[in-house]
Amino acid sequence: MTAFLAIVARDLRLGAGAQGAMLTTLLFFVLAVSLFPLGVGPEPQILARIASGAIWVAALLAAMLSLDRLFQADQEDGTLDLLAQAPLPLGLVALAKTLAHWLTTGLPLALIAPLLALLMQMETEAIPVLLLSLLLGTPSLSLIGAIGAALTLGARRGAVLVPLITLPLVIPVLIFGVGAVDAAAYGLSAQPHLLLLGAFLAAALALSPFALAGAIKLALE
Amino acid sequence: MALGVDRLACIRGERQLFSDLTFRLAPGEALLLHGPNGSGKSSLLRMLAGFLAPAAGRIVWDGTVPDDEEADGLRGRFCYLGHQDAVKPQLSARDNLVFWARLSGLAAERAEAAADQALDAAGLQRQKRLPSRYLSAGQKRRVALARLLLTDVPLWLLDEPSNALDRAAVDWLGGILAQHRAKGGMVVLASHVPVPLPDARLLELPDGRLT
Question: Sign of torsion, CA B161 B165 B170 B176?
């Protein structure tokens, strides 16, 4: 447990620092969403109609931004060898790094999303659901994305490959995330969508450590 | 705790680097790997660390071959130091060492004490709080080597440990190697330049001759 927490704490420090991923991810997210009113025009009805989709797609892309560096930075300077020696199964080492990635990217994204929802003229009753759907959905993005990042370790164009591998796999998260927000906007129950997001997260959390450990072992050779 | 290697072979990129490698290492013993570039010294070290699967043969700890689940428990028994220092430039030397100490399972206070002690031994008292990006290559190497002093592990696997070190630091390295062996520790070390490692056995790669 000490080792797990030590990895999370160190990655948080590295991620929140000046060269970290947190700030760029957040700025990208805010910028990408603010492009929509400029591109589609300021009519409130149109913006409100596309708000959920625009915010979710922007969050999806923003979460991909820093993923390729998740394990690569550690591999380049030899830290990965060190992490593999820790008295902690490799899957948990990777899970700790993924948790830190989510805390520095997914969580801030979810927390700032309600502000962007106001900008996009989203129905007020849908905004808490948006927050909840992002809080449930972004950890899945980090987990699946981490598998992509681990698989492309050592590949030349990892930055391009990671989204190519990851995005098709996270389409269900996008569908149910947007579904939940839209349901709330139309006055329907968002619960089924949120439950499905939760189920997806539970499955990703249980299965990804095995995939992560396997992929990193390959990269250590 | 003893380490044995039995008819080990290594294949990298469809090329056989070495085969039929056999040696034993008892507590207090050291093994120096010699050989030209590309003869498999680093690969042998990574194999002993469990990063690389042997193409043939086996690695035996105390007479038993660790299976996959035990390999997780094996991790606390060796300390591998490769070509790279694994020093994060954003963090200070001390923070780097504290992280490594906590990674090997030490509680926060003991980790900090161990890190301070190791840095003092490495002669880096004055650079403790400096972000590591300001350290020279030799100083970074000393931080990486100070990692060996954080915990008591029986086997040290060192790949060119004296890279970038000045003469005083090489003497210090010789000192900690001698101390480790006096405590019953084992060392496997690959180096092109002479390293102070008295009466170590010599393994010539790729033919595997032991002297």
Answer: negative
Does the beta-carbon distance from A82 to B100 stay under 8 Å? yes
The whole-angstrom separation of Cα B118 and Cα B51 is 26
Rounded Cα distance between B28 and A179, Å, is 65
Torsion of CA A182, A25, B95, B89, to 10 degrees: 160
The answer to whether the Cβ–Cβ distance between B103 and A83 falls below 8 Å is yes
Q: d(Cα A119, Cα A186) in Å, to the nearest integer?
A: 19
pLDDT digits (tens, 9 = 90+) for B83-97: 888 888 889 999 999
Q: Give me the residue spans of the domains in chain B.
A: 3-210
Best of A10, A85, A92, A153 to mutate (most B CBs within 10 Å, chain B): A85
Peptide bond into B206 cis (omega under 30): yes
Beta bridge partners of B34: B204
Could you tell me the fold of the domain covering B3-210? Rossmann fold (3.40.50)
Judged by a CB distance cut-off of 8 A, whether residue B155 touches chain A is no
Quickly count helices (H) and strands (E) in chain B.
6, 9
Q: Could you report the per-residue pLDDT of A163-179, keeping only the tens digit for each?
A: 999 999 999 999 999 99
Q: Tell me which chain B residues have a C-beta less than 8 angstroms from the C-beta of A81.
A: 49, 51, 80, 82, 84, 86
> Which DSSP helix (H) or strand (E) runs through B25?
strand B15-25
Question: pTM score, two decimals?
Answer: 0.90
The answer to whether A121 and A47 are in contact (CB under 8 A) is yes
Instruction: Give yes or no for a contact between B56 and B8, defined as CB atoms under 8 angstroms apart.
Output: yes
ipTM score assigned to the predicted complex: 0.85
